User: Which sequence fits this backbone?
């Protein structure tokens, strides 16, 4: 299969000044997938070339990569990852490619895309609508913690998949019957807004604050199943205040936007933990909207007290783990680098 379009390449990137140059060729078994690997007008290959500073040429079912040796190795692993995603029936968009490029510097990427994980099952979460695989290096650690640990704190900026991956794991466990209920909660606190100013009854008032949790659910389950399970109580979405006085057994419990809990709310929530349950606490310590900031945040207080306790894991995401559009990562980085 010949390349669909020629692209201008800067010859300077191939001058052998500071990096050893390399050239590798990889061959794929199923040529019919390569059109999707390349993308329309080779857009996917251009993305890999521009990000890694390599040149990619394709003919038939073989792809040749040329450039600095470390970049060539990363491009090779990225292309293999793209091919394997398509083999597994998963979508391949610019965000997925960007994530594969980011993970290509990790020694675990080859194991993830090939299923060779040292005797363990491949790292993925299966739901009714899709199969989720790690899209950043930290998501690898996070998915492992979700499968093994009782209480997980997930900290980091927006767009890193903290809540989405947790909801996917919860849906997967609900589908397999390893838990009987899925409970999703958030503090009803937003910057400059109060519940009393919103129209309607209590459900109308709190639903806007919980909408991201609904969105993640509908992305992992058919709508009719979400509605049925919400109606019969298998899935519950409620503000954190509704958790007081309960024991949450046989449940997968997720607290989102946990940076906006007080210390008292966080202690109350964590002590709801019951038999055969899993609890995930997600939040961005740099986006606190409660009076007093980090000094009063229940999330910061809980992590400082509980990190290292047996049965509790803490996963910290950074701007490098942002898996939305690449510009989101640049926005987060710009804000985090700006001093107040």
Assistant:
């Amino acid at each position: 299969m010949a390349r669909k379009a020629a692209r201008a390449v800067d010859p300077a990137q191939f001058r052998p000044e500071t990096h050893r140059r390399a050239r590798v060729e990889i061959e794929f078994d199923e040529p019919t997938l390569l059109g999707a690997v390349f993308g329309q007008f080779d857009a996917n290959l251009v993305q890999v070339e521009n990000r890694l500073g390599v040149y990619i040429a394709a003919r038939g079912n073989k792809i040749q990569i040329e450039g600095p040796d470390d970049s060539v190795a990363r491009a090779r692993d990225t292309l293999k990852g793209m091919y394997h995603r398509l083999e597994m029936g998963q979508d391949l968009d610019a965000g997925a490619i960007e994530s594969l490029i980011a993970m290509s510097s990790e020694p675990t990427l080859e194991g993830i895309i090939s299923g060779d994980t040292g005797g363990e099952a491949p790292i993925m979460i299966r739901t009714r609508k899709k199969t989720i695989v790690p899209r950043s290096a930290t998501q690898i650690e996070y998915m492992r913690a979700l499968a093994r640990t009782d209480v997980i704190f997930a900290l980091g900026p927006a767009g890193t998949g903290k809540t989405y991956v947790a909801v996917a794991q919860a849906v997967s466990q609900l589908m397999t019957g390893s838990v009987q209920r899925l409970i999703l909660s958030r503090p009803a606190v937003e910057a400059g807004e109060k519940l009393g100013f919103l129209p309607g009854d209590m459900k109308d008032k709190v639903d806007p604050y919980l909408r991201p949790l609904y969105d993640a659910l509908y992305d992992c389950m058919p709508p009719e199943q979400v509605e049925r399970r919400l109606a019969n109580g298998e899935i519950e979405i409620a503000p954190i205040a509704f958790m007081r006085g309960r024991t949450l057994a046989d449940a997968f419990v997720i607290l989102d936007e946990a940076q906006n809990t007080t210390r008292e709310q966080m202690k109350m929530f964590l002590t709801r933990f019951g038999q055969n349950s899993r609890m995930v606490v997600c939040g961005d310590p740099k986006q606190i909207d409660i009076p007093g900031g980090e000094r009063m945040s229940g999330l910061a207080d809980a992590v400082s007290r509980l990190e290292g306790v047996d049965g509790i894991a803490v996963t910290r995401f950074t701007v490098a783990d942002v898996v939305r559009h690449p510009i989101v990562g640049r926005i987060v980085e710009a804000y985090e680098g700006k001093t107040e």
Summary: The longest strand covers residues 21-27. Residues 1-6, 8-17, 107-119 have pLDDT under 50 and may be disordered.
